[in-house]
Design a protein that fits this description.
It is an enzyme of class 6 (ligase). It is built from 21 helices and 30 strands. It binds 5'-O-[(S)-ethoxy(hydroxy)phosphoryl]adenosine.
Length: 655
């Protein structure tokens, strides 16, 4: 692994994990996908994906399944045309399912809304008509920063319907982060809300977007949903209320087909260096894989299941497994606006009980939080409707996996630990619940039609029991099509590491166990994973050095029992700056303002020196040893080997 290896040491106990859980016979017998799919996917990958693409309605059939001639720029379902939104909405209504609830929306303060597929069609049509009235045309970019309210989903689908490219920015991101994303994509419209409910109280949202849009000349209009009724500042001519513009629109809208490779959305994610990358996804291949994986991995039965994914639409999981996967499959799902402990720590279990949720998909960090709150809380609710549990976002430690199965899944439900990324667009490695004998902590095996390998530095596949880098050695339908406006960065970031072999470098470490199953070990680059959110060490370092008192900063992700990793910053103050009691708080708050509260360091340690190699590279490995209270590792490559002593002694005298 590299010097900056971000491997999560909490997973060291993997080698001793040997529990295996076979699927129940009745579950396997009724499962959507059986073991034969693996052979089909390998025997003829393109034929396999063509069959999955037939899950969708195409206006024009494709001429070629995959065009990889210009690798790493892929084209899937070449020549095919479809409308993504019509596939998620209209066709279900046309099939007579208009009365089926698409979304049981649950507001944090207790309000709720049941939206049928027929309602969804009306709302998306009205929104599309409004966006057309605002002069937007296919290919234009629309930024969306919204809480988890139905209008967020209407907005995404209206964009898809019109061939507009949405760029959803997580509600917790700062105005600076929103501004840079709007600028990078040159968005013409921003959709937001006056405020949002968070932890039982209304909090402003438009204040944040106003700060961003004060400096974004590309934005012509800001469309504002009234959610909390709080005071907002208003810019006449630019700002428009949703209820004034959308509500009066016609309830029908004719969807036009778009090319399979028409851009669907951009989603920004942290990379190792520089600004966040605008990951670009397109239409036909993306929807095919989002739809198929949702059907296969969750064993989805749209007639009877009630599905709930707890992600936010600001992340890829919300895109693929709240909006596009589930809606293309016509299932009924729960969408919850708020925090899991508002008004009490049993809120999720109460929602599962009330709506008879049968498939629940969440993140390890939340499972560990539930563990902290205590098993007696889920025990108070009737969770017997659950039949599949999912996990995503970071490696799940075996203890959390077992707790999840015992306390939420009644020792009965299969758990699918799904590995994928913003870049992969959809799930890549995961058990199939009716086939796989699951192992706590392992994502296990590439899905049918997908190929993944663990390789060494040279790109040679390691043997059973061996560890190395995770690569994807075959193109897949929902793969990113590039980084918005930066083809070179796309090639460099993902395809240069194993250029001769044509492997996609995922940035994750992984190993095979004795059966050849894959265990993910965390990032091998400078990307941290905090509560399943990707944040790069460089981003936080830049935020810190932008503060006038900071001379230099080095940031590491230290293992954390709840959040997976916690951000620990080592900061050298400028000569004249004297640390006092408020310095640490000021710097933590500064990072929250610059990037967003999710990036707020868990600890800021003021030091006099940083450990560097002779070439000036900061040795984060050593800082991580300090942050995790371990004995300091090998310091022989340090330019000045006394530095670590200085840091350790300095810390002891300040704490
Ligand atoms: C990590 C989230 C282990 C991994 C869908 C990846 C995981 C990054 C898992 C992508 C998992 C996600 N097991 N690690 N099941 N799922 N990761 O782009 O490091 O927000 O590279 O996509 O999360 O994060 P992203």
């Amino acid at each position: 692994m590299t010097e900056q290896s971000g491997q999560t040491p909490t997973l060291d106990n993997l080698s001793t994990e040997s529990r295996v859980f076979a699927p129940a016979d009745d579950f396997s017998a009724a499962a959507n996908v059986g073991a034969a799919a693996y052979e089909q996917g390998t025997a003829d990958r393109e034929a396999f994906w063509a069959e999955q693409a037939d899950r969708l309605s195409w206006d024009t059939r494709w001429e070629r399944v995959l065009d990889w001639d210009d690798a790493p720029f892929a084209k899937w379902f070449v020549g095919g045309k479809l409308n993504v939104a019509a596939n998620c909405v209209d066709r279900h209504v046309e099939a007579g399912l208009g009365d089926r609830v698409a979304i049981h929306w649950v507001g944090e303060p207790g309000d709720s809304r049941a939206i049928t597929y027929a309602d969804l069609l009306r709302e998306v049509s009205k929104t599309a008509n409004a966006l057309t009235e605002l002069g937007l045309e296919a290919g234009d970019r629309v930024a969306i920063q919204m809480p988890m309210i139905p209008e967020a989903i209407f907005s995404m689908l209206a964009c898809a319907r019109l061939g507009l490219v949405h760029s959803v920015v997580f509600g917790g991101f700062s105005s600076a982060a929103l501004r840079s994303r709007i600028d990078d994509a040159q968005a013409r419209l921003l959709i937001t809300s006056d405020g949002q409910y968070r932890r039982g109280a209304p909090a402003p949202m438009k204040d944040n977007t106003d700060e961003a849009t004060a400096h974004t000349p590309s934005i012509e209009h800001v469309l504002v949903v009234r959610r909390t009724g709080g005071e907002v500042k208003w810019t006449d001519g630019r700002d428009l209320w949703w209820h004034e513009v959308v509500d009066r629109q016609a309830e029908t809208h004719e969807a036009q087909p778009f090319d399979a490779e028409h851009p669907l959305f951009i989603l920004y994610t942290s990379g190792t260096t520089g600004n966040p990358k605008g990951i670009l996804h397109t239409s036909g291949g993306y929807l095919t894989q989002a739809s198929y994986t949702h059907h296969a991995v969750f064993d989805l039965k749209p007639e009877t299941d009630v599905y709930w994914c707890t992600a936010d639409i600001g992340w890829i999981t919300g895109h693929s497994y709240i909006v596009y996967g589930p809606l293309s499959n016509g299932v009924t799902q729960v969408v919850y606006e708020g925090t899991p402990n508002t008004p009490h720590e049993g809120r999720h279990w109460e929602i599962i009980q009330e709506h008879k949720v049968s498939i629940y998909y969440t993140a390890p960090t939340l499972i560990r939080t539930f563990m902290k709150w205590g098993a007696d809380i889920p025990a108070r609710y009737d969770l017997s409707s659950l039949r599949v549990l999912g996990s995503v976002g970071e490696p799940i430690n075996p203890e959390a996996w077992i707790w999840y199965r015992e306390n939420v899944g009644a020792n009965r439900t299969p758990i699918v630990d799904t590995w994928w990324q913003t870049e992969t667009g959809a799930i890549m490695i995961s058990p199939l619940p009716g086939v796989t004998h699951t192992k706590p902590g392992s994502a296990q095996r590439a899905l049918p039609g997908i190929s993944a390998k663990v390789v060494d530095d040279q790109g040679v596949e390691v043997g059973k029991g061996g560890g190395g880098y995770l690569v994807l050695d075959q193109p897949w339908p929902s793969m990113l099509r590039g980084i918005w406006g930066d083809n070179d960065r796309y090639r460099d970031t993902y395809w240069s590491r194993f250029a001769d072999l044509g492997f996609y470098f995922a940035g994750d470490g992984a190993k095979y166990d004795a059966d050849g199953d894959i265990w993910l070990l965390g990032r091998v680059d400078d990307v941290m994973n905090v509560s399943g959110h990707r944040i790069s060490t460089t981003e936080v370092e830049s935020a810190l050095v932008s503060h006038p008192t900071v001379a230099e900063a080095a940031v590491v992700g230290a293992s954390d029992p709840t959040t997976g990793q916690g951000i620990v910053a080592f900061v050298i103050l400028r000569g004249s700056a004297k640390p006092d009691d408020s310095t640490v708080k000021t710097l933590r708050d500064h990072v929250a303002t610059e990037i967003g509260p999710i990036a707020k360091p868990r600890q800021v340690l003021i030091v006099n020196e940083l450990p560097k190699t002779r070439s000036g590279k900061i040795m984060r490995r050593l800082l991580r040893d300090v942050a995790e209270n371990r004995a300091i590792g090998d310091t022989t490559t340090l330019a000045d080997s006394a530095v670590m002593d200085l840091i350790s002694t300095g810390l002891k005298s300040t704490t």
